[in-house]
Amino acid sequence: MEFRFASEADIDALVPLINTAFDVEKFFKIGERTDAADIAEHLKSGRFLLLEDQARIAGAVYIELRGDRGYFGMLSVDPARQRSGIGRRLITAAEEFCREQGCRFMDISIVDLRTELPPLYEKFGYRITGTAQFPAELMPVSRPCSFVLMSKELGHR
Fold it and tell me: Element (H or E) spanning 1, and its range?
């Protein structure tokens, strides 16, 4: 398995990977998680790190540099490959990339309705730092929700 950064040529492969990985959110989300225009917009402000196995994308994570803080989101693993360590490898690689770029912290935001996620990310060293309003323009939802904000100190290389 090898890491590489996505290009615009990967958009058509990223959209179904992310949407399928986020099917678990259909209990509150109306429609799909993303589309080609959304991925293209994300590529303008950040990067998608891909983990490939024999030229097939097994997982992806969005990374954005924000001064001395990194951000990752849209962590997506092919459902057939989940629970195989791909998510862990993507998180570790995203953190390492941000650390190499001078970031001292890594931030994530999780929809509060995904109550299983904060304990999972706490195992990776993330701590809850606050909450934020869920922006209605981000995606339509069927019930009220907000973001749980989590952060981790990356330390120095």
Answer: none
Tens-place pLDDT, residues 94-150? 999 999 999 999 999 999 999 999 999 999 999 999 999 998 777 889 999 999 999
Domains assigned to the chain:
2-153 (3.40.630.30)
Separation of CA 18 from chain center:
9
C-alpha to C-alpha distances, 138 to 8, 87, 119, 142, nearest whole angstrom: 22, 24, 24, 13
Q: How far apart are the first and last CA of the chain?
A: 24
- What's this model's pTM, rounded to 2 decimal places? 0.93
Residue 27 corresponds to which tokens in the numbers above?
């209990």
Tens digit of each residue's pLDDT (9 = 90 or more) over 43-72 = 999 999 999 988 789 999 999 999 999 999
